[in-house]
Design brief:
Strand content: under 5%
Largest sheet: none
Low-confidence stretches: none
Helix content: 55-70%
Radius of gyration: 20 Å
Shape: globular
Order of helices and strands: HHHHHHHH
């Protein structure tokens, strides 16, 4: 029971942060809205401002049966999903890193990636308001994080942003069209700031596998066997980074052991 109570508190904290993430995901890409205004959440369909009891993370969605109380329009399951993901990440970083500043730093990175993932899926953009400050915060965090040095953070920024920028320019030179947005370049630079050069290498490798497999599945599903489909790459980078945070060192070790076995 003594161990259960802190986990419950952490989970509830994560749910509350997840509710704020939903606000960010909905408002950041929309130029007529800001994260802080209006202060109260509203139904995206009828515009009715929600009462406090309609905005309790996860519980309100269940209580309202996934529908707006006013217009009865269905509420996307994404809202409770984001809250649960946020809560699970809060629990996971505390389990792995303890009640430390390290856990808080990685939790900040993880929830930033959640926002980026869902915005990129909807709008195929990665907001500068997250990635650019993220680069600075990641570099400053390297002064405290024991896993990477300040030099490694700088190398991660330069290599992560530089290699994707080079790939993007080469693609434009060969094909004459944009194959990769600058948002992906800034995102990988941000990840390099937090996770260093080794993290960037892992993320590029794993995200490329995910992206290739997904691209093939999309081509098979649409029966359009061309390379013209636009698939946002930010989610693949984010998922690869999430994997690295929790299991990166273990997976790299297993890969090296398999390689030399």
């Amino acid at each position: 029971m003594t161990h259960l109570l802190p986990n419950i508190i952490i989970f509830i904290f994560g749910l509350c942060i997840g509710s704020f993430l939903n606000v960010c995901i909905y408002r950041i890409p929309r130029e007529n809205l800001s994260v802080g205004h209006p202060k109260r959440s509203m139904c995206p369909h009828c515009g009715t401002q929600l009462q406090f009891w309609e905005n309790i993370p996860l519980i309100s969605y269940i209580f309202l049966l996934g529908k707006c109380r006013t217009c009865k329009t269905g509420i996307s399951v994404r809202y409770p999903l984001v809250e649960i993901i946020s809560a699970c990440f809060a629990l996971s970083v505390c389990q792995k890193f303890g009640w430390t500043l390290i856990a808080l730093i990685y939790y900040f990175l993880l929830i930033a990636l959640v926002i980026i993932t869902f915005i990129d899926l909807d709008f195929q953009i990665i907001p500068n308001i997250i990635s650019l400050p993220g680069i600075v915060i990641g570099f400053l965090a390297s002064f405290y994080l024991p896993e990477i040095s300040v030099q490694d953070s700088l190398l991660g920024i330069l290599f992560g942003g530089g290699i994707f920028y080079a790939i993007a320019r080469i693609f434009v030179a060969i094909r004459g069209i944009e194959g990769m947005g600058m948002g992906d370049v800034k995102l990988l630079a941000m990840l390099g700031a937090f996770l260093g050069l080794k993290g960037v290498m892992f993320i590029i490798f794993v995200s490329s596998i995910f992206g290739t497999v997904t691209g093939i599945m999309v081509m098979i599903h649409t029966r359009s066997y061309t390379f013209k489909q636009k698939i946002p790459f930010g989610p693949f980078l984010s998922i690869a980074a999430m994997i690295y945070i929790f299991w990166g060192e273990f997976l790299i070790l297993q890969y090296i052991m398999w390689l030399y076995s």
